[in-house]
Amino acid sequence: MTETVSGAAVPAVHSGPGNRDELLPLWLSDVYAESPAELRARLLECLLKPMGVLALVAVAGGVFASLRQRTGWQRLNVTLDDALRFTADEVLELATYVQQSTPHVFGQVADLLNASPAALSGLSAVLLLHAMRRGGR
Fold first, then answer.
1. Is the separation of the CB atoms in 34 and 127 below 8 Å?
2. Strands 2-5 and 8-11
3. What phi and psi, each to the nearest 5 degrees, are found at residue 100?
4. 8 A C-beta contact, residue 13 and residue 126
5. CA distances from 55 to 21, 30, 66, 99 (A)
6. What is the pTM of this model?
7. Where are the beta strands (DSSP E) in 16-77?
């Protein structure tokens, strides 16, 4: 079964709400991997903003903690070089953690993708945005 999203036929995800929720971080990490550095940096800032010190150290082996240490724990500034340094697997771990701890952040990710039409050129971005809209996020 398929649905139409932004003029494209997209496979429907109807295997239950748990399945969709499990796929959101995966699709987000794919979007990250397919995106230019500027969008990657904005996605990272969105995902990292609500995280505390312990979470930053615990997620993905602590690779994201360096961003806060460099500029101070009160301010977050992800550079283009930073965005290119982190892998999609690390972002998958980050997105999974954020989805479990502060799921409303995925609504901010949807807003970011909506504001970046170039980001919606990939299938993962379309699936992610569609799933978040259907899920009320």
1. no
2. antiparallel
3. -80, -35
4. no
5. 20, 22, 12, 13
6. 0.73
7. none
H or E, element range at 113: helix 105-114
Cα distance between residue 50 and residue 18, in whole Å: 23
With contact defined as beta carbons under 8 Å apart, do 116 and 39 qualify?
yes
Strand (E) or helix (H) holding 38: helix 37-48
Neighbours of 96 (CB within 10 A): 18
Q: What is the pLDDT of residues 58-101, one digit of tens each?
A: 889 888 888 876 666 566 788 899 899 999 999 999 999 999 99
Tokens of 107: 């609504």
Please name the amino acid found at residue 9.
A
Contact 10, 114 (CB under 8 A): no
Q: What three-state secondary structure class fits 3?
A: strand
Contacts of 87 (CB under 8 A, 6+ apart): none
